[in-house]
Amino acid sequence: MTTHAAVTFSGVTKTYGTVRAVDDLGLELHAGETVALLGPNGAGKSTTLDLLLGLRPADTGEVRVFGTSPREAITAGRVGAMLQSGGLMDEVTVRELVGLGCALHPKPYPADEVLARAGLAQIADRKVNKLSGGQEQRVRFALATAGDSDLIVLDEPTTGMDVSARQAFWATMREQAEQGRTVLFATHYLEEADAIADRVLVLHRGRLLADGTAAEIKAKAGARRVSFDLEGEIDEAAIKGLPFLTGVAVSGRSVRIQSTDADATVHALYGLGVYPRNLEVAGLGLEQAFVAITEAEEAKAR
């Protein structure tokens, strides 16, 4: 097994005009990790993946893939990629396109095996331009896994897939990771990152804000969710005046708040002379933690 990290970014910067898409990025990915790359639109996720795949050069710093340049790793067949950008060939069948992908890979799998793994066997003879969006995504996945690659890079891989297709897709990705491959995926489906990733990276304005397990990212947000129901008229101003709040949402009789000190907030709530029913205090979900972390960073920039 190689002693090199699967991926290394060392002080990497990429600028477009006055926009710094990637800002002094440093990180390492290791064999067998499943890593989610999160960030709001414009955070630098796509540029980071482009740099990783050698599609764009870094302005400063260095990107290494298994100890070599991205181009060398890709030429050696060590990297498979599924990107949002770029179309698929028209007027060819799924079987023909996947067969071409296998033929071009330095360490190919049999085309029928790739088609079956991607859930394409039943539509292998259909023309690519006759596919639905979800089926096109499965073709892109097949091309990304056409050979025995050590790193699989996925950009919004399950966009357009229905629930069953998404579940099957991630089951396959778990198998890939269990075989020692590194899986890096960018996604807007934060529940996927929470359920699938061993590690979560949060980018914002090209900088790495958080790096850890989903549980660690949630803890980093430093807030908890408090939910309860109230009877009678709700005094929203009084609720918003509770201490340590970072967010409030009132819907009918239900109140949902976020607090950096849930104990003190609940104590103050009873001090208002109200009786909260169905009171629950819980940690933030990954989506709420992600929003809290990025909003805090935005507040610093203002």
From TrEMBL:
<dbReference type="InterPro" id="IPR003439">
    <property type="entry name" value="ABC_transporter-like_ATP-bd"/>
</dbReference>
<keyword id="KW-0046">Antibiotic resistance</keyword>
<keyword id="KW-0813">Transport</keyword>
<dbReference type="GO" id="GO:0005524">
    <property type="term" value="F:ATP binding"/>
</dbReference>
<feature type="domain" description="ABC transporter">
    <location>
        <begin position="7"/>
        <end position="230"/>
    </location>
</feature>
<dbReference type="Pfam" id="PF00005">
    <property type="entry name" value="ABC_tran"/>
</dbReference>
<dbReference type="InterPro" id="IPR027417">
    <property type="entry name" value="P-loop_NTPase"/>
</dbReference>
<protein>
    <submittedName>
        <fullName>ABC transporter ATP-binding protein</fullName>
    </submittedName>
</protein>
<dbReference type="InterPro" id="IPR003593">
    <property type="entry name" value="AAA+_ATPase"/>
</dbReference>
<keyword id="KW-0547">Nucleotide-binding</keyword>
<dbReference type="InterPro" id="IPR050763">
    <property type="entry name" value="ABC_transporter_ATP-binding"/>
</dbReference>
<keyword id="KW-0067">ATP-binding</keyword>
